[in-house]
Amino acid sequence: MLRLRNLTCGYGRSAVVHGIDLEVGPDEVVSVMGHNGAGKTTLLRAVVGLIGAMDGTVSFDGADVTGRATNKRVKAGMAYVPQGQQCFAHLTTAENLRLVADGRKRGKALVDEQLDLFPALRGLLGRQAGLLSGGQRQQLAIARALITEPRLLILDEPTEGIQPTVVAEIESTIVGLAKRGGLSVLLVEQHLGFALQAAQRYYVLKSGRIASEGETGADADTRVREAMAI
Amino acid sequence: MDLIVGQLFTGLSTGSILLLAALGLSLTFGQMGVINMAHGEFIMAGCYTAYVVQQAVGDAGVSLLIALPLGFAVGGAMGLVLETLLIRHLYHRPLDTLLVTFGVGLILQQVARDVFGAPAVNVTVPEFLRGGVDLLGTTVPKTRLFIMALAVVAVAAVTLVLRLTPAGRRIRAVVGNRDLAETAGISSRTVDAGTFFIGSGLAGVAGVALTLIGSTSPTTGQSYLVDAFLVVVAGGLGRIKGAVVAAVALGTLQAVFETYSTASLAKVGVFIVIVVFLQLRPQGLFTLRTRSLA
Question: Rounded to two decimals, what is the model's pTM?
Answer without folding.
Answer: 0.84
